[in-house]
Inverse folding.
């Protein structure tokens, strides 16, 4: 059990300032919730006389580290758009301003570029009036960008501007940079609290049960599945094929299929599949069409990459260093079309790729609640001098998680677990498209 | 003025049956509304002692041609999906059944294939219970197909099945076939009323001011523009590019831009444009970015085909015989990307092509009203033995229009007219992207 | 035919200024469309050697009255909220600013109160930046109020502030005040163009075929009918009763019922009904329940006022002077409940009154288009010195209409006409609930 | 710690049948998750050498109790409508039919009335075709009713019809009846598995972290708050007052306010408040209006009942035996109006009560996922012979909970806890409206 996660959080120093936050019950610094609520696991730890791994509970502390009147805070949004970025920005500003009295808040423009002087992006001065209604718009009022920037340059800028708390809203590349910024600031002895608000529309962050925007994303994705199903029904041997987000984890595809159970096949990165053979996808699809004359397929963008790589010898990367996925949607569209052409069967395939239509919407009601509470807790964490951590949620409780831990690996769907079992039951698809 | 349209409608014969329709005010057979309500035009006709062209007003007649108890009606939906098809089907059935007592209604499956025996598509028996809720779903419960079928074969089938009224819901290809069916039936002396319910999401039907589904379509298109605008704002030099429907007429693009006035450039088939040169699209876009750092472009699929054809030597056609448009969206995306690459300016272009997400939605509230009234009037027309006509609307009044007249040419946006002027004013785009 | 409407418009003077508006085809000052497009009516006028009544066509003129650089414009919104107010404000500002170069625009706060000094409501200075996104919110950024203000006082204020064009957005009370302001300004020899943008969610404005917000309103109303239908289905003998807007005209109720044809009974002000007797509403409802076990009823707020007045001896008026309608919704709820209690039959009635949920939404896509074009044309009219008129639409063409004409009577649904006939056909309700 | 909850579940007998369910990882019968994941609490139990309370984990078991080919299942929905009822029904049928092969499923009509012969409600025969699309409609296709029925009579009917598993979907009254049915069936030695699917739109079920429909409900409630805010902004001293569901627990109000942070005051049953005095609601509202000129108030229906009872001497109950709440919304509307009238200040109060508009919508995407998984697990539980339990969720894991435990008390918002603290921070409202 030496591999168990270490959830300990870095503090800038001792909290000695009385919090101005008006609160009935403060969270005590040693409040923790266990990582694994399974009774057997707990009893096993007991037997071994070990304390089970547990996470710090987020929330307001009675004493804080920073004197609010002297705080200058900064906010930056990085990577692709995701529902809820503006909701997070809004609440960070509101909470800092009204609950702690921090009235010196900068919004860096266009991602980490905004922390690098040569881009000449002047920061926005963020006030309650400016941010009051932004949660009703998608995107980020700060703008965003992809790609790495020099850590030293950014810490120079933060130092020069006297930023003492930095909130970074971004994906795993951003979180990796965030942890480097925090470490560099520590090395320089800066009193800089660096707090991540993890943004991954794919919901693939380790030790974090839900990431903001994810729920909105799969909810909006449902519209595309509905369109695919309608198109499939509207033509003889109609096939609706939808490509959804999900580079390494199929949560969006899986949940969208559970939410709109007209889907017949869900393909996700975690579960390999074959196209050919008696139990391959193509033949299974053919059987479905023979029986029902229409079918709907949802494929996560990261699914079946092995099939694609076979046909290709180059691997490309985007500005953030992510491997450029090859287009499984177009690939499947072509393979399905070929297959039925070869069999001389007329089909009507409609391919839908809603990407930006999903990324750009504002957070839905529940994600707005989630973003608000996440951001409130990020402010609490920063005020009491936590750093190099992000705010997550576990067992429905908001927690502090060391960033390093979360970027070490990805959260994925367990092909033998509950969620995938529920999807298989809801779609009725076979457990595998692989010949024995 | 010999070129004026002739709106006279073919009747199967004299109306002698007392209508069972329960109505306060029946429409008299000679009720007409003039085509051109412009006062000067009317006075000009007066001077020439001519009657200005006018259309028959649709609506219930006191005496009808068919004995409802003996009527067997058929409905067929053809071509691509369009919002409102199910609303039209529903009201046709309800009106026939409850208002006229026609309780023998067939729905032919998968377009005109359903009228050709060798496809073995068994017709659906349509009843009020079956259709009661279908307006809440997109698509067509009958299914649809593209492509021509042999007219004689279809009329054979109609004759064999004793169909005495056929309602065809489809685009201009369908209307052309509809008129041939009507003529063939006349030639054979069949008592077959053939009534078109014109379906063109592009709203490009001549002598018809509005086609069903069009309003829903541009309303849903607005979401894509919103996404494009949000993405454009979310990145430095962000460009959102949206391709919308509109093969020959830019109504969807124009109205969507008026509905969501964040659009900066609208490109439609009726207004040619240049890419290059000081007043070309690319340079104009560059100036816009320099001033505002983001831009949203809407392009109708039929825009700029001349630019594409220059680069290509083949012209393809789809199953319905329509020339396959070349992809202006992808073309523009590539040209814009190249242009700024050449200029060494970083841009962030997001391209959105929502096609099926628009076609597959159900009719919105106003289109539901429109579909209902259209279908009610189609039933009235069929019951009184009209044939070879479609139900349209003109000056907000529902009218009978000879199908032949409507397929002779297309309704397009007048580049010197009001609508285009309103779009130019709303977007602020230059009147042309063409060097003098 | 001496009673025919006189559509002549008042001009402040001769248009001598070259319009800066950039346009391909200007509207010529004598362009008109006829009021009644019915062919018979036109021929009747011809026989009598009369010119049929016709309305000025709205749109940009080549020469205008005001020098844009000297214009100071004012905008005011009055009465209850209505979808589209912000869209109208936005386009007025954009069109004045960018198309004509008028950069001096005031927004008066809280209706006519904003023109009366003792309320101390400071006007807003309206700029493109301020109004760019407001069409996405419901309500009016200017605020509104009900109730009369002294005409002289308001004209004093306009004179003092050098306003030369005033755009009033409001209902019939507002239009009555608008015409008085225009007349008083004329009397004083002021060069003040007063243009109305008629706001009536009920769509009851005479000589205007559509008023802004109306379509959005009945579209949103559909949600309430859906709720009522669902509740009715969800219980034994379930009755869903929805009260919708419609003081004197039942357009919202009629169109909402056509849009969601689950409605069984529509009650509107134009069609009186009885509760009691074998053919009264209550017994008819009972028969419906016996047959189907659920029913949905839509009642316009102005329906059945005669039934209410019988039980009451006082008539109240609101701040705008409108007679306070008595609550037909609650009245029907109680009468229906009593009736079935007396008959000892269990029913489950759910009463829904969505009022503010409808009034406060932003304009939908089509209403946004409509508001934009309406406002563009209002600016054109003001710039060429028209006054005491409103911008309407007739036969799908935007027109100038003298305000006086429109406030003389109300547009109502003809109980013997097409629309009501369509509603009766769609709902299947009896033509009357009145015993012979 | 003798008061700790006892989560042990009743089994009908030993599971000996091999499950036909096709699954990678079955849940073992002894799998449990702890009730309280707090580390300190766990260590406290360790010290006392006690096992901390833990719940059975739901999911498919390798061996089951019933032979699927002999199972006849029944479903009943009771109480008021709630989003998701149809989703639950759909998945119950699909899971029974396709995953277990149970093809004999009855849907009892109109709640428990459907189990009582004298009501003559014939059960529906539920099949996959019938239920395939019902999740897209609100309400319950089975219909519902309120009020108690005789337990013995119902068990007689179940016995007579050979029902061996009964799924009850309903609120706390229904759960109380469900437990009595289960006990009576045990007493009679019937092999009847009785499984509850708790339906409480208020989310007030003890030991269950989320109830279906709740999230949809507060999401839809947001529209009403938006309307209230818009109306408040649109008038001078505008006040928007919204009454939301929440008889004993303010979860809907609290979450809706977090989701749409334009709310200034949230009033819930758990937090008493005063109207009068310097720190009472009325004076606080007045101060807010003086500063901002508009305000939005959300009140849960169960809030402030003490204030109402003071003015009233009778307590009424509905058919389900719930105390009829007095109308706090109308009460506040009147008190606020009076207060400002007395102070001679003009206000514009708009009161919105959206009740049925919320209850009748279909489940949103996330609630659809939740309903699906809930229903899947209910089928698993029934198949392995569990009874007198409901399926809940705890720490994001689906669990079995003895019904008795859940109906003993209500889950409420802790006025000193996190959620209420988050609401106070988001609204900025004072921590109490009570004078010291």
């Amino acid at each position: 059990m030496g591999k168990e996660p270490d959830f300990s959080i870095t503090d800038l120093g001792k909290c000695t300032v009385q919090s101005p936050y008006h609160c009935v019950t403060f969270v005590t610094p040693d409040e923790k919730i266990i990582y694994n609520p399974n009774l057997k696991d707990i009893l096993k730890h007991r037997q071994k006389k070990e304390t089970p791994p547990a996470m710090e509970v987020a929330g307001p502390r009675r004493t804080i580290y920073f004197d609010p009147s002297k705080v200058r805070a900064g906010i930056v949004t990085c990577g692709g758009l995701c529902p809820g970025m503006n909701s997070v920005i809004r609440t960070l500003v509101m909470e800092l301003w009204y609950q702690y009295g921090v009235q010196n808040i900068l919004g860096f423009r266009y991602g980490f570029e905004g922390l690098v002087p040569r881009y000449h992006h002047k920061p926005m001065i963020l006030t309650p009036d400016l941010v009051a209604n932004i949660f009703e718009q998608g995107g980020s009022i700060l703008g965003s960008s992809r790609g790495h920037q020099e850590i030293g340059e950014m810490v120079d800028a933060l130092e020069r501007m006297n930023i003492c708390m930095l909130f970074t809203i971004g994906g795993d590349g951003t979180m990796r940079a965030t942890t480097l910024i925090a470490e560099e600031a520590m090395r320089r002895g800066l009193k800089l609290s660096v707090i991540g608000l993890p943004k991954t529309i794919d919901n693939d962050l380790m030790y974090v049960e839900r990431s903001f925007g994810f729920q909105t994303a799969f909810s909006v994705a449902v519209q595309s599945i509905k369109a695919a199903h309608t198109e499939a029904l509207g033509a003889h041997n109609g096939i609706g094929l939808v490509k959804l987000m999900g580079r390494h984890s199929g949560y969006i595809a899986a949940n969208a299929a559970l939410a709109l159970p007209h889907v017949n096949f869900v393909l996700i990165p975690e579960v390999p599949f074959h196209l050919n053979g008696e139990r391959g996808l193509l033949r299974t699809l053919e059987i479905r069409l023979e029986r029902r004359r229409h079918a709907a397929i949802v494929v996560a963008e990261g699914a079946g990459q092995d099939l694609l790589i076979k046909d290709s010898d180059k691997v490309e990367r985007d500005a953030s260093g992510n491997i450029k996925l090859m287009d499984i949607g177009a690939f499947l569209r072509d393979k399905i079309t070929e297959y039925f052409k070869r069999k001389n069967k007329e089909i009507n395939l409609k391919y839908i790729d809603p990407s930006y239509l999903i990324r750009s919407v504002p957070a839905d009601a529940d994600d707005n609640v989630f973003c608000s509470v996440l951001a409130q807790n990020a402010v609490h964490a920063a005020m009491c001098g936590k750093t190099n951590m992000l705010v997550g949620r576990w067992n429905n409780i908001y927690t502090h998680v060391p960033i390093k831990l979360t970027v070490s690996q990805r959260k994925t769907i367990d092909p033998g677990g509950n969620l995938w079992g529920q999807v298989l039951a809801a779609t009725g698809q076979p457990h595998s498209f692989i010949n024995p």
